[in-house]
Write a structure and sequence with these properties.
The protein has 8 helices and 13 strands. It is an alpha/beta fold. The protein has one domain: Carbamate kinase. Helices cover 35% and strands 21% of the residues. The strands form 3 sheets. A 9-stranded mixed sheet has the order 6-5-7-4-3-8-12-13-11, sandwiched between helices.
Length: 255
Amino acid sequence: MGRTASAVRDRDGTMAECKYNRVILKISGEGLCAAGGRGIDGEQLHHISTEIKTVADLGVELAVVVGGGNIIRGGQIAKDSPIETVTGHYMGMLGTVINALAVQDALEAMGVSTRVQSAINIDRACEKFIRRRAIRHLEKGRVVIFAAGTGNPFVTTDSCAALRASEIGADVVLKATKVDGVFTADPVKDPTATKLEKLSYDEVLDRRLGVMDFAAIDLCRQNSIPIVVFSLKQPGNMRAVVLGEPIGTLVSTAE
């Protein structure tokens, strides 16, 4: 971890100075559906895949963790039905596999080489997660999409992103959201909310800011992996973050 920034050759032949060379991108399942909707929306899938391609085209090593909330929220369905909580969580993990396969096909259609690795064995549809194999795929320029979370119930896909980042030696976790960073309050509900440009891990934990779940923040802190929270809605944001532009909110060690 902690590789220094380096110049990489974009696939159009130009040189670009990247701040991060191995990246974990965390996308929520809601990012794949229309506002207020469920399932997978074609336009949103195309938008996200296009943004991922702009980063892959820089030549950086990119892995993606995708949520499944657009299909099913395991904890919620267990509350509203006779389904056991543990079963609900496994159902949610399977929802992330559906989303991962959708992102894979969209990227492959754009000419981006990919691999889906699942924490739950579904060998007819994707590979099982093997750390060394994942790293080898990244070194070969493939986008690796991690599905099924950690394979364990009661663990969020945020924690999966932090865990996989730690395992593969990622330089950063990019958390794509609906708003442009971390705010003092919910900017949708509170028009006086202000954006916080930089935060330490401890500040996020102490102020109980809704960046990622606490386990994910603590794991990134233990391994000194910075987190950048940014808006997925704005085209070009993902690429700009990788190039080191001051987009969104940076969570890292205290200066």
